[in-house]
Design a protein that fits this description.
263 residues; 9 strands; 15% strand; six-stranded parallel β-sheet
Length: 263
């Protein structure tokens, strides 16, 4: 079973970005909205800040308590939309349940939506872009390959499906709670999982030689039970995560180059 080295692929992207940013003398700035005290969210932000510092992208963190009024968060995003020195804005997900995620994320200016969440965003969607990169690395020929995605929401499922269709890759997606998941899993050549449910995909549910792209946190794939069946696996950590950080920072750089201010 081949293990995808996301850190190695990400490093190439980051080194290229560092050269470009230094040569072009720009100072990209990313604003991150954090609501609540989620430990995983704090870790992700730490990784983004560390990578950003290495290549010259400045991360500005705006923290809000879980008790904060939603209007206060929306106002802050609107202020950041107007700030010409801010090139990209992201809302670190998940948000605490009481908040309207669609409304808060939807407040971000399309030109500053560097996560690529919004329809008609100025940036390519980060996670689908990472998944596309991995598919191209793992599969020599997509002809007659059945590609299946498991997601927690129709919104992401449709976003992924549409994005890959634009790249010439057809997939089917299912919500992880769908009764059709098990029967379809067993015949899939490529499985993409973005659910964050530990041990969701076990060896007994997949075919011999399957390619597993695990974008869940915690890992969706039970690595021990698939090791003798899968031909390819993205590990957690070290797989999809580092690549998404690198592609996010690439979007911030591109936004700064197109619409930002030079130092």
């Amino acid at each position: 079973m081949k293990i995808f080295n996301g850190r190695k692929v990400a490093e190439k992207i980051l080194l290229d970005l560092k050269k470009r940013i230094t040569k072009e003398k720009i100072r990209p700035k990313l604003a991150v909205i954090l609501v609540g005290d989620n430990k995983a969210s704090k870790l992700y932000i730490k990784l983004k800040r560390k990578a950003g510092r290495r290549i010259g992208v400045n991360l500005l963190l705006y923290k809000f308590s879980e008790r904060t009024n939603e209007e206060e968060i929306v106002r802050k995003i609107k202020d950041l939309n107007k700030d010409e020195l801010i090139n990209g804005i992201i809302v670190q997900l998940p948000l605490p349940k009481k908040f309207n995620q669609d409304r808060i994320v939807g407040t971000i200016d399309l030109l500053k939506d560097v996560d690529g969440f919004l329809k008609n965003s100025g940036s390519s969607p980060v996670l689908p872009s990472a998944i596309f990169t991995i598919i191209k690395s793992a599969v020599k020929s997509l002809k007659k390959k059945k590609i299946l995605a498991l997601t927690n929401s129709d919104i992401f499922g449709l976003t992924l499906k549409d994005f890959l269709a634009q790249k010439g890759i057809k997939i089917k997606y299912f919500l992880r709670t769908s009764p059709a998941v098990k029967s379809n899993l067993r015949s899939a050549d490529v499985v993409i999982s973005v659910c964050g449910v530990s041990g969701l995909i076990k060896g007994e549910l997949v075919k011999k030689g399957v390619i597993l792209i695990d974008a869940g946190f915690p890992a969706d794939v039970d690595r021990e039970s698939v090791k003798n069946k899968a031909s390819f696996l993205t590990p957690t950590p070290g797989g999809v995560g580092p690549l998404t950080v690198a592609l996010l920072l690439k979007n911030v750089y591109l936004a700064a180059k197109k619409h930002g201010k030079r130092s």
